[in-house]
Structure formats: structure tokens, C-alpha cells
## 1
Amino acid sequence: KKSIHRICSGQVITDIASAVKELVENSLDAGATNIEIRFKHYGLDTIEVVDNGNGISSDDHACIAKKYYTSKLNEFEDLSKLGTFGFRGEALSSLCALSDLQVSTATAQETPKGHSLTFNHEGDLVKHAVVPFQKGTMITVQNIFSTLPVRRKHLERNYKKEYSKALVLLQMYAVVSVNKRILVYHQPKGGGRQLQLSSNKNPSMLKNIMNVFGTKVSSSLTAWNDDFINGYISRPQIAGIKSSSEGQMLFLNGRPITHPKVHRLIMEVYRSFSVNQSPFFAVNLVLPEDYCKKFAIRYSLCDQTEYSLSQAKPYTPKVLQKP
Ligand code: ADP
Ligand code: MG
């Protein structure tokens, strides 16, 4: 039974990027305006997400890492929504099954006191201590995939690539998160702390782009605003922009997505105007929720993490290929 839980968890959390995505989304859900993501040795040793959100109330301490536990009751009211974002109540329990999980948290009422919580692989709260802590939550994931040796081996062989996938995702959050501060630190083995990317608490996406990609990119952009689009795309006449898929970002209602069709459309329109160049773009599609459902827009944030927004199909995890 234990191993079944681990295998299922391995389909919720497939890689470092999906772990990071779940943690950051939890911070955003908790109303955080300040989120710090800290990696030790490319996330192989530690992935830590610290936020200034609402914290976890003590009633919830013992349950948060239980399977299907969620405190986000309002989301249950709309059952169709429950199916859309998927994984409800599965992230922390899966991370527990796959790693060593430690949580520190304090609510506004409790701070400057807070709690340090340790969970075992089954999601049971096994240690509790009262500690000084600022309002917010810190989740520390150590030795990810240590309970799935084959996956761990795969990660150890590809850790730089896996780490950069997580960074690309974080770049997207940093670009789209207006009025939020997102910082990423990386501490390589034996080395000092490095800041990888930051987006200031800025009131505009353009400023975020500047912070994440530099002024050379941000000054080459033109605003793209339409009924249901807001964003930026690089001007075709500007040469010499180093473009890669890294600088091509799509969002749906402020959440990172991949959408091959829309992506291709943007590329085609761009190429019809321009030299043989790839654009930089950061485009947020602003669509009503039911419209998203009708067109079954996929929320695909990491390669294997797909959400179907079509009402008819609840999310079913893809069976992973053996690495
Ligand atoms: P879900 O997000 O679907 O509710 P998770 O497994 O991701 O499920 O999280 C379980 C619960 O843990 C959440 O419902 C929430 O109560 C709590 N939680 C997790 N991360 C945070 C955070 N950063 N701040 C506040 N509460 C959190
Ligand atoms: Mg969650």
C-alpha cells in the first residue's frame, strides 16, 4: 500500500518543476505578496518556498499532508472547478511520500510565534515545536524522490536540465505576478548563494520582464492589448535578440500555460511580418472561466502536468514512461 501511494505521488509530482509549481501555487492561494524559492544544489538537496501568506491555522496542522485534504473549501462549492485545477489536496501529501517534508508557519494572530512541523512519508505529523516565526509559511522539501530510487537516479543524471525547467516556470510566475515579489536563490554545492531571478513588487508586467530578462529585452517590446489579450511581444525590426522558447510565455488568466495552437499562431503571424526570427513574448489571455472550459484549454505547466479544462473530462494523470 505504501508503495502504491508513492507511485501515485510520483504522478502528481513528476519532477522538480512540478514540485515548485505546486508550492508556489499554494503560496499564491494563501495570498502571499512575497515568495522566495530557495534551491540547494539544483533542488537535489533542498527546495524551499517561503511566503508571507496567511499561514496555516493550528486546526489544520495535522491534516495538511493527508491525501485529499484541502482547506480551500470554497473551491468545493464549484465542483466543475475542482476538476479543472486538478490535484486538489494532493501536493503536500505527495511531497511527503516522496521526500522529507518540513513546514514552518505562523498566522497573523500567532506571530511572532509560529510552529515547526515535521511529517513522515505517510503524511502524519510526527513532530511539533513552537518557534519564532513571521506571518507566513515555509515549506522545505529535502531529498526529493528519495523514496522512488529510479526517479531519483533519473533526476541525478539530469539535474541541471530539470533545474532549468523549474527556472523557466518560475520566470513565468515572476513575469505575470504583478504586485508580488518573487525571488529565486540557488546555493550550489560548496558554493555561495546566488540570486537567479527576481521580480520586484511592481505594478506592471513590463517591469517584471525587465527584472527577469533585462532592459535589452524589455526595451525591444511593444504592448499587445486586445479585448482578451494583454501582454508584450518583441518588435520584429529589432535584431539581435536572443530568443528561445525560454522567452515565449503564455498565460491564461494569470496562470502559466502552454498552448501549442496559440503558440503556433503567434509564431506564424510574427514570421509573416518579420525576418526569420523568433519573437520574445509574454501574453496573458484573459478569458472567462466557462469559455476556457468550452475550448478545453489545457493548463500544461510542466511537460507531464496537464490539466484539462474541459468540463467533461476530469484530470487523469498520464502514466509516466520509465526514465
Ligand atoms: P490544495 O492546495 O489543493 O488545498 P495541497 O496539498 O497543495 O492541497 O495543500 C494542502 C493544504 O495545506 C492547503 O489546502 C492549505 O490549507 C495548506 N497549505 C499548503 N501550503 C500553504 C501555504 N504556503 N500557505 C498556507 N497554507 C498552505
Ligand atoms: Mg496546492
## 2
Amino acid sequence: MASALDIRGIRKSFGKGERQVEVLKRIDIDVKPGEFLILVGPSGCGKSTLLNLIAGLDDPTEGAIRIGDRDVVGVPPAQRDIAMVFQSYALYPTMSVAENIGFAMEIRKVPKAERTKRIAEVAAMLQISHLLDRRPSQLSGGQRQRVAMGRALARQPELFLFDEPLSNLDAKLRVEMRAEIKRLHQISGITSVYVTHDQIEAMTLGSRIAVMKDGLVQQLGTPDEIYNRPANTYVATFIGSPT
Ligand code: ADP
Ligand code: MG
């Protein structure tokens, strides 16, 4: 099967000369269509750096990234068919929920009737149909997070990127939104790459998991493989110990 996302021999350094630090040392990851791939590892191991390279927010020092059958290194983010959800989701404060969800489609000149239909579909999926006329300031944290996801989903991207989207939420809401993200992935089938430092989140959401440490993938496998056949002591310890 062709890959939805293929990351080959990626290296990334920051700084110059003596100050140069190699943050990603050699990353190879192949993501199949419809997969939910988790990048998990401790803070500072290079997860966000890798996600930003996939999004096109930065360029690798070395290596290739393909999305579908397209080589995307050097292609600006707006020309990659991706949507990103971060932990700090900035909704447009003066727009209603419906307008927030529809904005990207409006920019792309999607006809109004089609936009309205798509907004209604996405709102139904996220169970926020009753909130469409509200402003972001009239929503709870969890509702705002749903709108942020709705905005990303409405674009029907080829690839969904998440960078610790739940880490600002309280524990109860985090569990609820985790289930929500899982359900949305099952419905939409959109290939996803999800960054977290939370082992439980990784094990419950991932179809495959890349365990990272110091800019390297220590193991890439299904939750079952990672749990039952850890590749080394690091993986065994990391997966076995809640942060
Ligand atoms: P994670 O998301 O896993 O917590 P990051 O990818 O954000 O880690 O960061 C990995 C390392 O790269 C950290 O040591 C961080 O300080 C460094 N780093 C990230 N971005 C930059 C940058 N723009 N310039 C210099 N160093 C950076
Ligand atoms: Mg990060």
C-alpha cells in the first residue's frame, strides 16, 4: 500500500558552529492511509520539531518528506493539504462558532450552500450543533476545543496533525476529549499524526506508536508490540511509568 506520509532520513539541527544542536538525528517513519500514528516521548525529545517539519513550519536539515505522492520539502504550509490542532487553539473571537468552522472554506471560495451544509455536518459530528450562533467567549474550554477540531475537520484535509491538544484541559475533560478524537478518527478516516508525552493517551489512541528519545525513534509498533515486546529498557520503562 502507498504511504499517506513518508518521512525518510530526517535530520534537524538548530544554531550554528559550536552552538549547533542536532535535535532530530535520523528519523524514518512510514504512515499508511487512515492510520493514527502517535509520537510519544519526554519533553524536549523533538516531537514538536518533527511535527513542524511535516506541517512545513520549518525545513529539515536533511532528508525527505512525502505527503501522498508529493515531495513537500520546501512547499509552504498553506499549499500542503493538512490541518493542525495545537494545545492553545486560537479561535477568532469576533466570529460565531459557525463562522469559525466555515472560515477556511470561505477563504477557499467554497460556495455558501456547500459551506453551510459542511458546517452542519461537522457540528453534528462534534455535537456542537446547538452552539453555532455563539461567540468563543460564551463557550467552555471543552466546547472551544471541539470548535477548534471542527474548524480543522471542515477543511477535509489529507493529513491531520495534533500537538498535545489536550494538555491544557483538566483530567476529566481530557478523558472525554480523548474518546471524542478517537470517534472522529473512526468516522472521518483521516490519516493523523498525534504528539503527546502521555503514555496512556498514546496507548489508547494510537494505531501505531513511535516512542522517541533524544531525537531518535526507539521503537515503532502497535500498542500491543510496544507493551508486550519493548525494543529496549528505555521503552519498557517509559511505557510502564506514568508521568
Ligand atoms: P518536544 O516537543 O518533544 O517537547 P521540541 O521538538 O519542542 O521537543 O524541542 C526539541 C529540542 O529542540 C529542545 O531541546 C528545544 O529546546 C530545541 N528547539 C526547538 N526549537 C528550536 C529552535 N527554533 N531553536 C533552537 N532550539 C530549538
Ligand atoms: Mg512539544
## 3
Amino acid sequence: MAATGKCASFRLPPLPTIGEIIKLYNLRAEKQLSQNFLLDMKLTDKIVRQAGNLRNAYVCEVGPGPGGLTRSILNAGAADLLVVEKDTRFIPGLKLLSEAAPGRVRIVHGDILTYRMDRGFPPHIAKRWEDEPPDLHIIGNLPFNVSTPLIIKWLEDISNRTGPFVFGRTRLTLTFQKEVAERLTASTGSRQRSRLSIMAQYLCNVKSCFTIPGRAFVPKPEVDVGVVHFTPLAQPQIQQPFKLVEKIVKNVFQFRRKHCRRGLEMLFPESRRLELAEQLLRESDVDPTLRPVDLTLSHFRALADTYSRLCAQNQGLIDYDFREELTENRAKRRADRSKELDSYT
Ligand code: SAM
């Protein structure tokens, strides 16, 4: 595997332009795969610069497509670049690139949502979690329809130190629809504050880098695009299991315009809802009239710690889902009504 020796000269030799590659291999963008290509090398270089120093680094690129960003990563000096691409049509163009950078590009034809990145790089590059991040970077101009489920999956991986994070605090530089990028980086009290803001920020240092106008892509998407950089925190701001935090955050934000108490109540079965919600808020020292967008990460930490304690004291609480109770109650009411009707006949 590469990246052991230093690569003296890492600039790529002259190659057909990305536009020529697209024509050569007849790579019409597939809407189904959210394909919007970046052909401007100044922009792809700018994205790559956000990742930091890539000289001799290990990199995984998500969805390389015709290879614009891939070229910038190689020009920045990456020694071992693993590209994961779902669409077979791009593989010949990527092979051409790999031949131009011998021993530096590995091509995986696969789906990033299921690819086992923990097996994609040698174990010796791993760093301890508390140490500096490893020299491994994930970079991608992500397909829009994959970006949100993918970042949630990777946030869970960060929490569990699995997937790309078996190597330590692997950094990510990714593109999102501008609206999603704004949610990821939104601070307390802002209009864009949402589930994604809390889930990303309790686990990572999240930095909004810059916005790329939609017109820079071919074909032009409906929206602008935001570049976001993530560095997993050595100490997550909330020290509870990911699923528990996710449950609280989801419940709070389901009534985003109401007082936070409204959503938090739904964590508890109807029979003890008011009593336990009150205990949760009191023991967490959270004002029940705060709106979800006004809750800080410290509020969420206190809520998660108290809720975890309540779950330890109340058997079955962790698995409680108010939607299931609603469905059961509706079914029971229907059965009672038909029994009542039967008694008249
Ligand atoms: N990186 C290229 C660029 O910047 O021009 C292409 C970006 S395009 C927005 C997204 C790319 O991701 C496409 O090449 C598409 O085929 C690929 N893709 C879509 N879904 C994928 C998945 N689940 N796993 C891996 N690649 C995927």
C-alpha cells in the first residue's frame, strides 16, 4: 500500500480536461444519483485546501464521478487515495487518472453507505482518540440524496469509534445543500438550529468553510452548496449513547415552535407523562418555557444525563415510543367502540 514513502513529485502529468473526460466517456449526469459535477479546478482546489495539509496523507474520496476533486486531492500530495464510486460509467475515467498517478489511487466500485472503511486503510495509521487526528481525511462533493443519511451514519460512527473512526478522529470535508450546511453549523437561538445542529456539534468541531453558487456545477442544481469541515472532538460534549441523545433531540425538535417541555413530555408514557417530564426538567435545571432552538449543548447534556438516570430507575422507559402508544390506544378505542355497538344488536 502507498503512503509509506514520500512522493517527491505529486503534480499530475498533462491529462484531458474533466470536460473532455465527460465527452470521451459520454458521462451524462444521472439525476437519480444526484450528479452535479464541478469542472472548475480553482473551486476543487479550494475545497481540498479546507481539509488541511494532504502531503503524503491517506484520503478517501466519496463519489469521485469524472474526477475533478480527485485531481485536486492528488495535486495536493495525497499518497494513498481511495475513491468510492457507485456509478460504473466513471470507472474507466478514474482508471486513467490512476495510471497518471501510479500507486496512489485505489478504486472501489461500491456504495459509500455500506462500504467498510475500517478495512480500507492499514491499521498502523491509527492514532489514539485523545491524540492528534490521524493523517486520514474524508473528502467529497456528496450526492445530495446521500449526504444527510451519510453524515448521521458517520456521526454515530464517531460516537462509537467505528467505521472510518477506528483510526481515531478522522477529519471530514464535505459538501451539502446550503440549507443543510447552515443547519449543521447553526448556533443556539438561530433560525436554522435543528436536530442536525445538536447531533453534529456535540460530537464535532463543525466549521462552515464557504458557499459554492449552484451555477458552478454542471448541471446546475436548484440550490447553492456549502462546504463543511468536521473534526471529531476528543471529549464529546454529551457522554451518553448516540441513540439516547438522538431520541431526546428528536422529541424536542418535533414541536420546534412550542416550549421545549411539549416535546420532552413525549419521552414518557401517558400515565406518568407530567410527573416524569417535570422531574426531568427540574433535575436538569432547564427552563420548561425555553424554545427548542434556544437550548444550548449544556442543556442537552443535562437532559441526556437525567433521562439516562430516569431510564435506569424506570424499567422499559428507554424503549418507550409515544407513537406506538398512540397506535395501541387507537386500536383499543376502535375495539371498545365495536364491542359497544355489538351490545346494541
Ligand atoms: N465528485 C464529483 C465532482 O465533484 O464533480 C462528482 C460529484 S456528484 C455530486 C456525486 C457523485 O457521487 C457521483 O459521481 C455519483 O455517481 C456518486 N454517488 C452517488 N451515490 C453514491 C453512493 N451511495 N456511493 C458512492 N458514490 C455515489
## 4
Amino acid sequence: MLKIENLHAEIDGKEILKGLSLTVNAGEVHAIMGPNGAGKSTLGYVLGGRPGYEVTAGSVTFDGVDLLELEAHERAAAGVFLGFQYPVEIPGVSNVQFLREALNAQRATRDEKPLSGGEFLKLARGQADLLGMDYDMLKRPVNVGFSGGEKKRNEMVQMGIVNPKFAILDETDSGLDIDALRVVGDGINRIMRAPDKAVLLITHYQRLLDYVEPDFVHVLADGKIVRSGGKDLAKQLESEGYVGIAA
Ligand code: ADP
Ligand code: MG
Ligand code: MG
């Protein structure tokens, strides 16, 4: 599904990704772990198409298509979802307005009819129910005044609504208490664990991986994957730290 080869990327003239290669097949969950500043979020942004990042070498294909040639909205329409480490606040735009626009824009690129307000609300409420989110939060401005955990939960509601094919989730577990962690973990499994979908789960901690069991774990350090293994690698990292393992 996703094939990253020798990816080099920089921001403001500083090289952050330094030859990263990774293949993700349909049906797989890959965890990316690694020390602060390793380039994990940068990888997510480059895959999501965030402006400001310059790819200087390498390639990324998604279902055989050159992902790097697509605009961010075209990537979303192709089924790529990026969950941010720091979800943005959008004052003045309600969650339902935002989510409905996003979904209908994607439907348009597939020649599907836009959902009406009523149809959309039904879908949104269904997802809110599944994620244990209050309907009131659907009406509030996007993420404004939401706690860290609420933003992450909201992001999972958004993911449930757009129902992507490939999700890059950047520290979705940060700011979550134990109960919220389980709800979010269950949500990821429910929405994304399917033979035709895949997930790149960026996380500092092993704890989310107790709920969303990865098929592969990779250590990203200084812009490259320096170690890959199965889910036991995450446990080993938790007990030993990155220092010995990344070396
Ligand atoms: P991680 O998510 O693994 O903690 P990031 O991808 O956020 O790491 O950051 C990787 C590196 O890129 C860090 O050293 C960070 O300081 C640097 N970086 C991020 N944005 C910029 C920028 N605009 N200019 C220069 N360096 C940046
Ligand atoms: Mg970080
Ligand atoms: Mg980060």
C-alpha cells in the first residue's frame, strides 16, 4: 500500500529525514517509535503533504501512485488520514460544519453525492457514540477549549467519519488517561483494523500498543529507521530506552 524509499526531507534548509525506507502492506499496523526530535512528526507531515517540507531525494508511492505529487487534499481524497500530534483549533467553525465539509469534499472527488445535514448528523452522532464523545462537542468550534484528551478523541471521531484507507496517527495517546486510552485504542482497531487498510502509529510509549497491537515496530532515530522488529521490540524499548537499541 505504502512504499517509502530512501526519503530525504528538509524544513527551512535543515535536513530532518535522512534516507528513510519503509513498506506498509494492506492489513498491517506499523508502530514508529523513537526519541524526541528524531523526525517522527516530520515523517507524518511529509506523508500528509503539509506545506513547508521539501523532499530532496527518494520516493513515496501509495497504491502505486506517486504520493508526493499530490496536494494535501488529493492525498486525503485518496484515503490518507493524518492525525496530528497537536490538533489545530479552528475558532468560528463548528465541528459538524468542518467534518461535513471535509467529508463532502472527499465524496465529490469520488463522484459521490454530498451528504445532507441530516444524513451527516446521523453519521457523526454514531461515531461520537462509539468514541464516547458528547453530542455537544460536535456543535462546538473545532478543538477550541478542548482538553488534550478531548482533541484526540475528536480526531478519532473525525477518522471514523472520513473512514480512511491509510491512517498516520501522531502521538494519538498523548494526553489520554487510562480510560480514554482504551476508548481511543478500540476506536483505532474498529475503524482501521481491516484487510484493506493500514496504520502508521507514531508513539513514544508502549502503552497504546497494548490496545492496538502492531504487526511491526520500527525505531526512528536521526531521520532513519535504525531498527525494526515485532511487537516485542516495543517492550524492549520501554525497559531499555532508545540509547542502546538505536545505536
Ligand atoms: P519528533 O516528532 O520525532 O519528536 P520532529 O519531526 O517534530 O521530531 O522534529 C524533528 C527535528 O526537526 C527536530 O530537531 C526539530 O527541532 C526540527 N524542526 C522541526 N521544525 C523545524 C523548523 N521549522 N526549522 C528547523 N528545524 C525544525
Ligand atoms: Mg516529539
Ligand atoms: Mg513528534
